[in-house]
Each structure stands twice: as structure tokens, then as C-alpha cells.
Amino acid sequence: QCQLSGLWRNEQDSLMEISAVRDDGDFKGKYLTRVTLAGGCARASPLKGAQQQPGEGGWPTFAFTVRWDKFSNATTAFAGQCFVDAAGKETLTTMWLLREAVGSLKEDWKATR
Predict the structure, then answer these.
(1) DSSP characters over 13-29
(2) Residue 95 contacts residue 111 (beta carbons within 8 Å)
(3) Which of 6, 59, 104, 113 could form a disulfide with 98 if both were Cys (CB 3.0 to 4.6 A apart)?
(4) Which residues fall within 8 angstroms of residue 3, CB to CB, at 6 or more apart?
(5) Rounded distance, CA 87 to CA 98, Å?
(6) Domains of the chain
(7) CB 30 within 8 A of CB 46
């Protein structure tokens, strides 16, 4: 079984800490990113999400959002799945979309990465 709660590190050395996942799948935590739009040092930002409980023999899917409001006017949505290999190592795979605020509708084209 894959457990989302705990401390996770990604390839860019950013850290994510997820508190206990509630019975309904909801969870909260914080994301300490080392990659920022403005550059500089690592900053912690709040995250909120939900995990879909898997069927028998499956791996859970999840989604969460991170508000980067302490250092950037942007929000990122992540969606992914948790896997466990034969040795018991848990791995999260995710895709993300980052939405940055822009000054006008004409600039909307460059707001999402």
C-alpha cells in the first residue's frame, strides 16, 4: 500500500510534507520549493489535496494545489499516482500546471506552463 503522508523529495531537491490523509481522502501539507519564478532561496507554501482510494490491488491517484503567494502570484495544480516497487520503495509520479497572474487578457497566452 502506498502512503501519501510523510516527507517527499523530488529531482530538483524540493520537499513536500503531507500530513495524515483523512478517511475521506483529503490532506494538507506544505511544499518547500527550491525552484522559484523569482529565484532565490527555498520557500514553504501551503498545499491542499485529495487522494482517490484505489480498488483492490491498485495504486492511489491524487491531486493537490500549491499557492505560491508568499513569493509569487502563481498557483500550481498537480495530479498523479503513487506506486510501490518490489523492494517497497514508494514513488509519486505527477504532472503539473502552473498558472501565473498576468496583467491583461491579451497576455493570457503566456500565463500557464
Answers:
(1) S-EEEE-PPPTTSEEEE
(2) no
(3) 113
(4) 21, 82, 90
(5) 33
(6) 6-110 (2.40.128.30)
(7) yes
For 88, left (φ over 0), alpha (ψ -120 to 50), or beta?
A: left
Q: With 0-12 CB in 10 A as exposed, 13-18 as middle and 19+ as buried, what is 14?
A: middle
For residue range 48-102, what is the model confidence (pLDDT) as tens digits? 999 997 666 678 899 999 998 677 788 999 999 999 899 989 999 999 999 999 9
If phi over 0 gives left and psi between -120 and 50 gives alpha, with beta otherwise, what is residue 78? beta
pTM exceeds 0.90, yes or no: no
